[in-house]
Write a structure and sequence with these properties.
single chain; about 350 residues; alpha/beta; Rossmann fold; Dihydrodipicolinate Reductase, domain 2; 2 domains; 4-stranded mixed sheet
């Protein structure tokens, strides 16, 4: 199969976990590939991804070879000691706009601002010269304006868009229509982890609901120590993230909980946790004869290992769509892989639709 020519926006921990994981399996060919739901999808394996362009705003990464930039601070992933050269790919500067929060400015060193239209012209040229097919966005939470910039870049460059972050593009009917009209696939929004806080919360909430138990209140609290959680210390940047995570749970209930009875969201930044994410979840409700029940779950995961395999699948779903000339939001794959798709389904139904998409 031909390689899938990809570009990445945001050379951070998430991307580092993806490419270092692929290299780990390349160096250990005898090991079973775990952490992805489809080792081969539509004929494409995990080794068929080729990142031929990259964009960031941090001066510690811009201008550096991509295989070196993934190790630059504040990235914390180091699962393999080094990566082979990725051709002649150097990280290019992207626009900052609203992509760098107040707290994150203390750990990154943003490039001096340049006119957005000058950057846009250079970016479009790079994407064209590199023959990029799919752009993957790992922008920080709250980067709504810069996410729209990159979505429009994809439309202008005629490439597919995988939006891993909770700024709504694939799930926004206006943007969805733009991609459909342009003949381009878009997959999003806001990546679900492999076995993460939201997928566990929505699964248990649906279980209680389907078994006839009433849910009175529920919460999910997450803490971690990487730049994602540092960004989310700014409450003003969390509106779309909280909507995304809350709707992922509410969508599984036969009757919505009142807003004051459900809390789903990031809670705090604990520096020494690094890429470790801790989730604390509680559900309280009533059973037969109004007898109360409650459950509590504690989850500890590596935040980056938990998302990388999902993104590898998202890229390959997008490539299959390009091969088949499927345009607009990828409904089944988005519902299966993302917290805030255009259409929510139960996980069983989303899985069925995503598998049906692969089979055509």
């Amino acid at each position: 199969m031909p390689k899938i020519r990809c570009a990445v926006v945001g050379v951070g921990n998430c991307f580092a976990g993806l490419v270092q994981g692929v290299e780990y399996y390349r160096k250990n060919p005898g090991q079973q590939v775990i952490g992805v739901m489809h080792p081969v999808m539509g004929g494409y394996s995990i080794h068929d991804l080729d990142f031929v362009a990259a964009f960031d705003v941090d001066s510690k990464k811009v201008g550096k070879p991509l295989n070196k930039a993934v190790y630059a601070e504040p990235n914390k992933v180091k699962w393999v000691d080094s990566l082979p050269a990725m051709g002649d790919v150097l990280v290019m500067q992207g626009p900052r706009l609203d992509g760098v929060g107040t707290y994150v400015q203390k750990v990154v060193d943003p490039m001096p601002e340049q006119p957005v239209e000058k950057l846009r012209a250079a970016i479009l040229k790079e994407l064209k010269d590199r023959k990029v097919e799919i752009l993957v966005s790992y922008l920080p939470v709250g980067s709504d304006n810069v996410t729209k910039f990159w979505a429009q870049v994809c439309l202008d460059a005629k490439i597919a868009f995988v939006n891993c972050m909770p700024s709504f593009i694939a799930s926004d009917p206006v943007w969805a229509k733009k991609f459909e009209k342009a003949g381009l696939p878009v997959l999003g929004d806001d990546i679900k982890s492999q076995v993460g806080a939201t997928i566990i919360h929505r699964t248990l909430a649906r279980l209680c609901d389907e078994r006839g138990c009433k849910i009175d209140t529920t919460y999910q609290i997450n803490v971690g120590g990487n730049t994602d959680f540092l960004t989310m210390k700014e409450q003003d940047r969390l509106q779309s993230k909280k909507i995304s995570k809350t709707e992922a749970v509410q969508s599984q209930l036969s009757q919505r909980l009142p807003d004051e009875k459900i809390y789903v969201g990031p809670s705090d930044f604990i520096p020494f946790l690094g890429n470790t994410k801790l989730m604390f979840m509680r559900i309280e409700g009533k059973m037969w004869a109004n007898i109360p029940y409650n459950m509590e779950v504690r989850l500890e995961v590596n935040d980056k290992a938990n998302s990388a395999g999902i993104v590898i699948d998202a890229i390959r779903y997008s490539k299959i769509a390009l091969d088949r000339k499927i345009a607009g939001p990828l409904i089944g794959p988005s519902s299966w892989l993302m917290k805030h798709p255009l259409k929510q389904f139960s996980d069983d139904e989303a899985h069925r639709q995503a598998d049906a998409f692969i089979k055509g």
